[in-house]
Amino acid sequence: MDMLDKIHTAEAWASLKTNVGNAKHVPYALLALLSDDENEVKRAYWQIDNYVVLQSDLSQSTRYVTKYLEEVLIKAKFKGYTLELLFQIGNGISPNKNLEDECYEQVMDILERTQYHNDIASTKWEKTIKENINDLRVLHNDRF
Questions:
Q1: What is the DSSP-derived secondary structure letter of residue 77?
Q2: Helix/strand/coil for 37
Q3: Over 90: is that where the pLDDT of 104 sits?
């Protein structure tokens, strides 16, 4: 996994929409989730949560952000913030049903894979991920 190495050039961030403007700040926020400073990680979390997904509303940029969160989750010291972002995205809503379904599926795939990763399996994060998977399934199924 080396997606984060190309994060600034792989997407046209300035042309992607968030719920509050464009997404040009988002790659910086994603990388800041890897900080050893929890206050910096919190700031980065809110730069994503209040823009990419805002009160459960998914934005156009969400489908691009999600794929980077897998690598962030594995590498992050403070994994809880990344897991919360994944949960918010997986439970997000949109008038664009395809976006909503795509984000849900991306998040579920990421959670299914990462629970078995060497840096996560047999840690407290494995249990949290399993709980998130179950909760997201229930919430998603309740919509239909």
A1: S
A2: coil
A3: yes
